[in-house]
Amino acid sequence: MSRELHLAGFLIASHVTHSHAAWRHPASETDYLGPGYYQRVARTLERGKFDFLFFADLLATPVRYGNDIRVPLQSGTQASATLDPSLVAAGLANVTDRIGLAITKSTTYFHPYEVARIFATLDHLSGGRAGWNVVTSLNQAEAQNFGAQDHLGHDERYERAQEFLEVAYKLWGSWDTDALVRDKVSGVFADPDKVRTVDHEGTWFKTRGPLTVPHSPQSRPVIIQAGSSPVGKDFAARWAEAIFEIDPTPEGRRAYYDDVKSRAVNFGRNPDDIKIFPSFVPFVGETESIAREKQAFHNELADPISGLITLSVHTDHDFSRYDLDAPLEDLVVPGTQGLFDVARRLSASENLTLRDIGKLYAQGVLLPQFVGTAEQVADQIEAGFTGGEADGYILSAAQAPGTFHDFVDFVVPELQRRGLFRTEYTGSTLRDHLGLGPASLTPAARRASVVA
Amino acid sequence: MSRELHLAGFLIASHVTHSHAAWRHPASETDYLGPGYYQRVARTLERGKFDFLFFADLLATPVRYGNDIRVPLQSGTQASATLDPSLVAAGLANVTDRIGLAITKSTTYFHPYEVARIFATLDHLSGGRAGWNVVTSLNQAEAQNFGAQDHLGHDERYERAQEFLEVAYKLWGSWDTDALVRDKVSGVFADPDKVRTVDHEGTWFKTRGPLTVPHSPQSRPVIIQAGSSPVGKDFAARWAEAIFEIDPTPEGRRAYYDDVKSRAVNFGRNPDDIKIFPSFVPFVGETESIAREKQAFHNELADPISGLITLSVHTDHDFSRYDLDAPLEDLVVPGTQGLFDVARRLSASENLTLRDIGKLYAQGVLLPQFVGTAEQVADQIEAGFTGGEADGYILSAAQAPGTFHDFVDFVVPELQRRGLFRTEYTGSTLRDHLGLGPASLTPAARRASVVA
């Protein structure tokens, strides 16, 4: 095969995923606070030869809906309970061999020295399987947990993120690949000519270096991003090697794909060095009608309030003040028109209410659902992959680990039969799986980091 | 047995321990960047029924000696290469069942929301085996890595640490034990009456809360400390449940024991609720002469420069400016007299040079060495335990994992034979192992946290 399809699994270290209803499914894991659940998911995806398992993260109970913690906690919405994913992933590094482990870290609330050290450690512990989903955090509740009354402005956040990555790259480059000598007899531990301070003094950060962690197997984690604003897409086009995307329609996904790839070209990058992963929720069955029933069963479990809480966070607008049964037409909320249009398209009905929108949103934050037999789901994947919308897909679970079992047992063999997906890992690092060359830490990345 | 002996193992996620020579030993592990080494140590100590494995941490290459990174890197001194221990410990939580996992986190460079979340996560992932070694970081190189030109003053650091712990306790208490309902049918995830914001606004920190992590098995990590100054000892007496201590002489250890226990009583605590762990390096052999040869072999590997680098950090004084062969008598360095006296006592010789001190320091930062057959080492442990110097001991390795194998295979059975040490774990949490009752998060701890 000339182009290789890539597959990733999406999780939050929590009871829910994009689907706010995941935890209510009768077959879903109930102990999402212990390590066993994550082990089972990671091993299942590794059995399916997935590129990586991805952990989103959220640093606060969402309070944008009515400025209240009671409602999100009662409904178990996204972020109402979330473990620190870096520890979960480090655990998985000890019990898996091949699958990549990508975690989210915000550039807004931590110092780059700490974050660079976490990822260099994870890359060592996993033998080169670390990925970093760089987020710039935009949620006021997070800011309040970390002692800031308000979050930074949008552009300031990206400027800070830009410098954050520059500092992290310098720290990862502070040890050369062959700096570690470890000669027990002579007592020479490292070659001092191959380790250096970084002496960074910028607008946001100061650090001397070197990192305490020697050069890691991949040099640095694979950089993952999910920018959707113009500034965010530029940031992604400049830095990202994998992009996680939410777009409910094939047209939207194709437009995003073309847009980001051409932005990357404008930054002097090879567009093949950025793999774009749209997300979907799969419902797979032995027959199409089984799959459709599974989908309907899941979607019915979604709690409208739970969805409206997340919608309030995503739009930075408090939806608690409206009548749930008011027709959507009567709501004039700046910035939501496109989103409401999408909801209308996803839904059968034309006369949606706010309750309907909440329910749709709780079913998976407007992620598309790929439904059918193994062949039908594989058809949708193949069409998108060959039709210019994706280099791979990231699967979000309607219930876990069940959704991943179904996909690995039904759909992966079909994709392999079609020659679209690997039947065995051919490399050992996440970069290998993604078909990325050696990581750049010096001129290329540095140039790309200069704001155009 | 009425009183139970406790045992812990000391590591840095690195090539050295207190012994700067550990990495040069022919049998020592050479891959201290992968997970296998830590797994082997943890499983060995778990086989020996140890209470916990302890990870120190250092956030910078030590540059106090000549303001230079070259010398520490070449000699492989302490902190020249160190992984993030929170990820290492999270990994071990996945591959061990009983042994406690204690890690170091500074209160100086992070926000308490992050640290509280890390420990609540580790406590969940390990099923209640988390411990937190609270350090207030006093090293300028660390400050420079985290963007601060100079570290905080001594008293300021302890004031910050005090508030840091208060905030962490509030966050750990933000979810009641039984707040998680998880009723899939009704869709009630948590009882909103059992989760609350903390709304902390203090001198150093602000946070709203609640924590994103539900109440963890131990309620919070076991608090570990190593205060040695008067303010540090008060801090330890107020907060700590296990204390890690370095003192080379039995008299010094007895004095420390009495001092800290009586300080604890002054803060209204039961002195049995603080377990004091002096540290030592064991050298065990089939015969005493084998053990003595092992000791001599190890001690000879110690590099004087490597030791002087750490001595420079510990005394905040640059020893690179002196002649290595100058007699110690000629050096007048404020604050080192007691330390030099200790070195003279540990050494056979009276006419020590700076090189000798460096070598002694590199052998284990003046930790006592317990040397001999299983019976002889057990005698020393028993004498200290029954003689008022210790509730348990923390072992530091002359080489790893070998030192731990020797101790577990030779000495542990002898301690068990004497009825001093458990033959099986009787509980599942670190608090259980330490014989501590349920953790307090509310009034008792809060009262104890008020500066007297």
TrEMBL record, chains A, B:
Name by which UniProt lists this protein: Monooxygenase
Annotated source species: Nocardia jinanensis
CDD domains: Nitrilotriacetate_monoxgenase
UniProtKB keywords: Flavoprotein, FMN, Monooxygenase, Oxidoreductase
Residues that coordinate or bind FMN: 57, 104, 154, 158, 228-229
Top-level division of the source organism's lineage: Bacteria
GO molecular function annotations of the record: monooxygenase activity; oxidoreductase activity, acting on paired donors, with incorporation or reduction of molecular oxygen
InterPro entries for the chain: Diverse_substr_monoxygenases, Luciferase-like_dom, Luciferase-like_sf, NTA_MOA
Stated family: Belongs to the NtaA/SnaA/DszA monooxygenase family.
Residues in Luciferase-like domain copies: 24-383
